[in-house]
Recover the amino acids of this structure.
């Protein structure tokens, strides 16, 4: 857009204006200088996004009156030029006494209050910061006009409401270059100050706010893994050959990028993965790699498979109920970028630059695509909310019952016993799992090893896979002899990773546990639920399994069952391997 | 018609929102309805971008016919 010539802007804007039929989005621009050329540029930038924008410029130097006239607009933009607060102030300020300036500040302060009050119910107000830069840019001098601006900006900052955004116009000056921003020919002839180039850059800068206000901003950033989140190729270099730490400058670029992405996530931008890799390899990196800044829970969805990425992005859009025009896609491969651009032209595609030093800046600048009007605590929770929503949607929309859905998943449970369990992962799960965890006992690797060597303990772990992939080792149990009676055992620990709950795996696993204990002639099994702040979802677990409650303790409940009475849930659709 | 003139007419068509073939040969403020002071500035800026030139201060107000515009552009080129 910014590269278009004015002639083409006028032509295209006229065409689109006749083509767009949706309800008009009215933008009022009020100012104390002439700013007419922004109309066509701003309209076009929004019309290109299918927003039927209609820009109306107010009269010359009637900001207060226009703020009232335009208060019903969808958006109001305020160009309040300090140099024209009184005729010729940009020069006259030097002739004024401090008292004169005080009086002026006082007058404008009142006007600011009035304008902001008039615009307090307008959905979006963009008000430019007062600036003296176009007239004074000597870094050694604190000119009167600059001091005046500083005072007025302080007023602005203290008075704006949440719908009113201060536009730091000096950042736009910096982008364009000061000398290219002003057109003093027009300033002398018609009190127009800004160049076309400025208006193009200004429009680019504020468009994200307007896209957010119209529900058209980007919402999700979909990332490849190899050479996008880390340097190197996981499948070839292995988990410890990939680079994302500060040992190398290449690794450092990815470290920076991951940190920036995490910040975006915190601000409410949704992150998702789309990578051609083995699911479990990537999962292992997220779970175990010490250099990963981004964690598994930072991602709202993961498409780690060997399907083409256009298919994956389409699926993501459906699962998350987001339009593809709200997607940004980052990949290092020109092939993948080309595919998405061709198949899904609404997705904004970013290729990782060949010069990695440019990569962090590129990602930092992406932030403006996800402009958020008001920050809320929900932002940080948003990823989780979407995850839940997606889960729910998948269950409800396509399947008449949960069981039918679960049957379709082709769940496979591989159970490992005693010496076969993956010790470090089991210890890790005991330390990290909070929700589906009956007793929340934390064990180190050494402790797990000791239990494995002790005949009074039996340990089990399982991994799960389904139609969509392999979830890895995601649950474990520790059962120990209750010492006094050799056929009387107790479930010391029983936990399932929250990634695989909701699939009735816990019942299939418990059935297998009981089955094995029976073969060892154990006839009584005790269960224990220890209350924590996070494990209320398993409060009734033993009740569901038919255990008898034997004791209500301050911190939980004890249970017991004769294994001859254990019926089990007999989940038919989970294959046990 | 010279290439410069063709381009000028194309720019005028865009600025005054008309078809190229409808741009009158004797175009001037008053002849072309939409040629007001505001659109005059749009025309000047569009021409400057189109030809990568910058009109001197004193010429801006004189760019009021196709011939004058063409002359001015040729001088600057």
């Amino acid at each position: 857009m910014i590269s278009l010539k004015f002639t083409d802007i006028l032509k295209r804007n006229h065409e689109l204006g006749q083509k767009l039929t949706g309800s008009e989005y009215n933008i009022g621009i009020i100012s104390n200088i002439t700013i007419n050329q922004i109309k066509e540029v701003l309209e076009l930038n929004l019309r290109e996004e299918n927003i039927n924008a209609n820009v109306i410029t107010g009269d010359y130097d009637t900001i207060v009156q226009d703020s009232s006239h335009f208060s019903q607009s969808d958006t109001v933009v305020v160009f309040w030029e300090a140099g024209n607060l009184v005729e010729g102030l940009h020069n006259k300020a030097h002739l004024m006494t401090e008292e004169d300036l005080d009086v002026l500040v006082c007058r404008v302060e009142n006007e600011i209050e009035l304008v902001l009050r008039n615009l307090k119910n307008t959905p979006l107000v963009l008000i430019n910061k007062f600036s003296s830069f176009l007239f004074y840019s000597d870094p050694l001098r604190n000119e009167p006009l600059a001091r005046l601006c500083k005072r007025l900006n302080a007023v602005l900052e203290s008075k704006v409401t949440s719908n009113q955004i201060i536009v730091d116009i000096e950042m736009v000056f910096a982008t364009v270059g000061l000398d290219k921003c002003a057109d003093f020919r027009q300033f002398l002839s018609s009190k127009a100050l800004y160049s076309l180039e400025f208006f193009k850059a200004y429009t680019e800068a504020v468009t994200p706010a307007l896209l957010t206000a119209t529900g058209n901003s980007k919402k999700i950033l979909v990332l490849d893994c190899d050479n996008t989140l880390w340097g190197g190729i996981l499948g070839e270099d292995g988990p410890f050959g990939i680079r994302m730490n500060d040992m190398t400058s290449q690794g450092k670029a990815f470290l920076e990028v991951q940190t920036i992405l995490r910040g975006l996530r915190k601000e409410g931008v949704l992150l998702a993965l789309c990578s051609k890799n083995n699911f479990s390899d990537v999962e292992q990196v997220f779970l175990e790699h010490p250099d990963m800044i981004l964690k598994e829970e930072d991602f709202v969805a993961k498409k780690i498979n060997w399907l083409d990425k256009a298919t994956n992005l389409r699926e993501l859009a459906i699962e998350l109920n987001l339009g593809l025009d709200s997607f940004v896609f980052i990949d290092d491969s020109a092939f993948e970028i080309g595919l998405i651009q061709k198949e899904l032209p609404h997705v904004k595609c970013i290729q990782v630059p060949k010069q990695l030093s440019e990569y962090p800046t590129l990602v930092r600048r992406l932030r403006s695509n996800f402009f958020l009007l008001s920050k809320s605590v929900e932002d940080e929770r948003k990823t989780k909310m979407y995850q839940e929503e997606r889960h729910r949607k998948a269950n409800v929309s396509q399947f008449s019952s949960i069981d039918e859905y679960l049957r379709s998943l082709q769940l496979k449970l591989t159970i490992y016993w005693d010496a076969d369990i993956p010790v470090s992962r089991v210890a890790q799960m005991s330390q990290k799992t909070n929700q589906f965890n009956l007793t929340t006992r934390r064990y180190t690797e050494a402790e797990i090893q000791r239990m494995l060597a002790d005949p009074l303990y039996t340990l089990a772990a399982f991994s799960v896979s389904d139609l969509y992939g392999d979830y890895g080792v995601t649950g474990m149990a520790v059962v120990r002899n209750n010492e006094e009676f050799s056929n009387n055992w107790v479930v010391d620990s029983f936990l399932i990773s929250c990634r695989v709950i909701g699939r009735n795996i816990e019942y299939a696993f418990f059935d297998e546990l009981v089955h094995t204990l029976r073969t060892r002639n154990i006839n009584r099994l005790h269960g224990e639920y220890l209350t924590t702040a996070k494990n209320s979802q398993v409060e009734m677990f033993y009740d569901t399994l038919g255990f008898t409650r034997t004791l209500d303790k301050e911190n939980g409940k004890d249970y017991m069952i004769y294994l001859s009475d254990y019926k089990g849930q007999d989940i038919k659709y989970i294959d046990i391997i | 018609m010279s290439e410069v003139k063709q381009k000028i007419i194309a720019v005028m068509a865009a600025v005054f929102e008309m078809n190229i073939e409808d741009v009158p040969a004797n175009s001037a403020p008053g002849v072309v309805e939409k040629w007001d002071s505001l659109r005059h500035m749009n025309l000047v800026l569009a021409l400057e971008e189109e030809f990568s030139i910058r009109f001197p201060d004193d010429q801006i107000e004189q760019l009021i016919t196709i011939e004058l515009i063409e002359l001015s552009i040729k001088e600057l080129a």
